[in-house]
Amino acid sequence: MSSGHPAAEDAHHHADVSGGWLRAAVFGAMDGLVTNIALIAGVGGGGIAPRTIVLTGTAGLVAGAISMGLGEFTSVRAQNEQIAAEVAKERRELTKFPEAEAQELARIWERRGLPPELALEVASTLGRDIDEAVRVHAQEELGVDPDDAPSPWVAAGSSFACFSVGALVPLLPYLLGGTSLWPALAAGGVGLFVAGALISRYTRRRWWVSGVRQLLLGAAAAGATYLIGRLIGV
Length: 234
Hints:
transmembrane; membrane; Ccc1_fam; VIT1/CCC1 transporter family protein; 9 helices; transmembrane helix
């Protein structure tokens, strides 16, 4: 909705898309929901006793949350280390060959429509400040901002916590004393729909479309494991 003034005048008119927490949180929550819904559906379909289902689901929650947290930490840290190595290489090139680097940056801007003389002048002027030149070259050549790298700790924590919450949802009916599989699947379905609807706040898509999409994906996974459980049995 328009606020009556240009969005560019608002310093926070864009959402944070580079902090590293949103992707990890969304992936963690969805993975926790789908993993434990499918796991519970599979063992429940095989006729396992409720107590064993709780044990299985709890083990899946703990193992999955730890795995997700470690995986996010390792992947984000490795990505940051790769970026740091490339930025260091760019800094060395700018120090040793400033004219060649300025021409390279100017060619990039020329392809975007800037006049050649102006592009070279701006690139050469920018090269006088080595730190700013490194930042701009990294953005233009690598597509990253070296000053805005995602935190591996934030990514790991978001993934761990959200996986745990998601995996807990289908377990709740059993933890509250239930003995039937279907309330657990229903709780998981509600969790999937709500999680999808919440994601729409960041993606600006229709909340019910996002909710139904996540519900259908989770239902497909649960349906597959339930059938396998029924076929194999106890």
